[in-house]
Amino acid sequence: MESKVKQPGLEEYKTLLPYLKRYRVQYALGFFCLAAVDAAQVVIPQFIKRAVDLISGGDFLWIAVFRLCLAMLGVMAFIAAGRFLWRYFIHGSSRLIETELRDALFAHLLSLSYDFYQKHKIGDLMARSINDMGAVRNALGWGIVTLVDGTVMAAAILVIIFIQDPRTAAFCVIPLPLITIAMLAFGKAMGRRFHRAQETYSAMSDTAQETFAGIRVVKSFVKEWWFIKKFEKTNDDYRDANMDLVKLYGAFFPFVSFLAGLTTIILLFAGGRRVVMGYLSPGELAAFFSYLQMLIWPLMGAGFMVNMIQRGAASMGRINELLTAKPSISGPAEPRRSRPGPAEKGAPLIELRNLDFRYPAEEKEGPPVLSGVSLSIYRGMVLGVLGRTGSGKSTLLKILARMADPPAGTVFVEGADIKDWDLGELRRLFGMSPQDSYLFSDTIKNNIAYGIKDGDAGMEEEGRDRENGISPNGGLPGELLSRTARLSALDRDLEGFSRGWDTLIGERGLTLSGGQKQRVAIARAIVSAPEILALDDAFSAVDAETEKRILTGILKERHKDERGPKTTIIVSQRVSTLSRADKVLVLEEGKLSEWGSPEELLAQGRFFARMAELQRLGEAGPESVGGGNSGRLL
Question: What is the pTM of this model?
């Protein structure tokens, strides 16, 4: 996947400053324990020095050597305890920050508008939420550890060896500047290559996600071979990107090890000569050797640190792209919260005033999706919507719930511009059953319970923990379930479900028929008895008899609601369905072409009447056309 790669920098970590501030005490304790461990480690060569000098002198007591061993054992026990503590504080904090950052990212993604998900693929979002988070965690854990540990350890060792013998130390540290230069050169290259590796991982994840989500289509067209090839291509791209990274990574660390090994060779020549000349004792040479071996870790750790910090910066940059995305639809700073008073009860519940609408992606090109639509919908009205495919029916419903954003001053709900409403409060008025009956991989009961909104009856049970996880409404009242099942005609299917309401359905309702999926979606829309019920072609997979039963029950229930009759909007291509409406809106090419009661539209003889006649003839059969055999279609 070709992409424009932005060079990551340390400024990407600014997002993490609030988290680091919150865990500053834990990090401070971790750094203290890490420094204490480093201090204890640099003491061990001193014990070695004393032991070697003691033994090389020839005149010694074994009890003295034994005491040195016990002292070293005590220091090692202290180091072990200190290592546990700094791992607990630093790595534990990095894990906690990762969890909080992932929660914040998930919450932010849910706050973004629908059009964001039309521009970003799900596989890419998953890769950033999982794989990139791991790289950020490593930067906050091992990256910081190697930075602090390497700096403290290297500084302490250099101070000690220069105090012990400046001349020998000066020769031994000659390769160190080369390591610094290598770190700077390799670090930038690692960041670029890791960013590309993450991008190819996103592409591979997206390919896998799309393939499995559309597995029915893949198998029905016998295209398994094509998707295997497509996945192989993205998998190979991911391999190549990682191999480029591994080659660089593999060249860097042997190079650092080689330079570190040069210090040992230099020590053998320079230090050995100093021992022969009597300037160093054998114990001091042994201690020098131990210090140089210990210095290899900070040098190697510097490479790890550069690698992890660069990886973390690249991943944090990808995460920041999501965190800085703004929802295209948002509520006002001071949203409308009050409902209309008694004087406003005669006003329309919904009013459209010369509505023109284009989707943002169209950028003023082509005709608008809706043009000059004006109408009033009153409380308790049943509105039918008819129109050809692409006439703007579904767009109209999206606009009413502000899933698509109309121009200001064109759509009003309860007398207020919908742009002045709090988004949550506006959408709580609606119960939607869209064309795409999306169901979650959960129980039938929970899929219906998703329709219950904050503040609705029965919500006191919401959020209860269940043995198998969190339920959206684990205590959904049985009476409410029974009523919803009856109204959506699901009651007759319950016996066929293996576990009744607790039957688990597959992803996107894979284990249900099309009609069952639509009825579960209808149940989800009506369970909370919303003020406005919008059914967008919700009966396309349901037979006429079941549709009649559902519509009759829903409309009767909503008309006799104790809080007053409620508004229902029905989008359908069946004129028989719309015959129950008080008013019917006919859209043609985004414009309001007909408006009135079903009887009035039938009398006008236009599109509504023609559709009614065609559907009547279709239901009656070919024999009814022209009468007898003369009208039979051959």
Answer: 0.77
Q: Where are the alpha helices (DSSP H) in 11-61?
A: 17-22, 24-56
Task: Domain 348-429+566-625: give its CATH superfamily.
Answer: P-loop containing nucleotide triphosphate hydrolases (3.40.50.300)
Domain ranges of the chain: 16-323, 348-429+566-625
Structure tokens at 487: 């109204």
- Round to whole Å and give the CA distance between 619 and 626: 15
Please tell me the CATH code under which domain 16-323 is placed: 1.20.1560.10
Tell me the torsion sign for CA atoms 225, 210, 388, 516: positive
* Chain centre to alpha carbon of residue 269: 59
Q: Which stretches of the chain drop beneath a pLDDT of 50?
A: 1-5, 340-343, 457-470, 622-634
Q: Residues 244-297: pLDDT tens digits?
A: 888 887 887 787 778 777 877 888 888 888 888 878 888 888 888 888 888 877
Interatomic CA distance for residues 168 and 271, integer angstroms:
6
pLDDT at 297 (0 to 100) = 75
- Short-list 404, 352, 252, 309, CA closest to 16: 309
Q: How many CB atoms lie within 10 A of CB 428?
A: 17
The closest alpha carbon to 307, from 423, 135, 436, 446, belongs to 135
